[in-house]
Amino acid sequence: MAGFFFHRAGFARRLLVTMGLAGGLGWTTPAMGTDEAVLKPRVPTDQMEEARGWKNPFEATEDNIDKGKALFQGKAFCVTCHGRDGKGFGDIPGLVGKLPRNFTDKLWQAARTDGELLWILKHGSPGTDMASFIPLVLTEEEAWQVLLYVRSFGR
Ligand code: HEC
User: Fold this and answer.
1) Where does the UniProt annotation place the signal sequence (predicted)?
2) Domain 43-152 part of CATH 2.30.110.10
3) 83, 90 in Cβ contact below 8 A?
4) Which DSSP string do the residues of the chain spell out, in sequence order?
5) CB 3 within 8 A of CB 32
6) What is the pLDDT of residues 36-62, one digit of tens each?
7) Protein residue closest via CA to atom 18 of ligand 1
């Protein structure tokens, strides 16, 4: 049942991805079933409980979201892969493998806790182009601000 639901919800977007990217840029796009793959947890099971316990110490005020946006588009260069619109189609033609996450996907937003997203910024998503950003590019405080901005795409 759940599979069927995700399938339906993601259909229009996947169609666009397939036509736009596979056609235009020559990326290999997974066929049907992308959403299930996207929703699958990235944090390893044995670290999940700890990661889910991490809470964002910053409130989602306009000021903090703006700070996150400046980092996202500036020194943390998230924008190069995730795009100004957060849809993750980016503009790096050389990118192969998994597509950057579409932050406007409400099912994905709902499937992740803030702590899991911080885990990703600490460790990256192994086997993909999503690298680790803490501590080399971002402090943990800055990462939490960026995540407030990432969350703002889901609203
Ligand atoms: C080089 C391209 C690239 C850059 C730069 C990049 N990302 Fe990603 N990001 C990706 C890809 C590819 C994925 C999908 C990984 C996967 O499917 O597991 C991803 C996934 C994610 C996810 C979702 C992980 C999950 O749990 O589903 C988050 C959150 C994220 N990126 C945040 C960021 C932030 C914040 C920045 C900037 C600090 C950033 N990314 C910079 C390529 C990039």
Assistant:
1) none
2) no
3) yes
4) -HHHHHHHHTHHHHHHHIIIIIIHT------TTHHHHHHS--S-HHHHHHHHH----S---HHHHHHHHHHHHTTT-THHHH-TTSSS--S-TT--SSPPP-TT-HHHHHH--HHHHHHHHHH--TTSS----TTTT--HHHHHHHHHHHHHTT-
5) no
6) 888 999 999 999 999 999 999 999 999
7) 125
72/92: higher pLDDT: 72
Mutate to test the pocket of ligand 1, among 82, 138, 146, 152 (most ligand atoms within 8 A of CB): 82
The pTM score is 0.80
Give the amino acid at 105: D
- Distance (angstroms) between ligand 1 centre and the Cα of 2 equals 25
Hey, whose CA ends up nearest to atom 43 of ligand 1? 130
pLDDT interval class at 88 (50, 70, 90)? confident
What are the extents of the domains in the chain? 1-40, 43-152
Residues whose CB is less than 8 angstroms from the CB of residue 61 and which lie 6 or more positions away in sequence, other chains included:
none
Is pLDDT larger for residue 4 or for residue 86?
A: 86
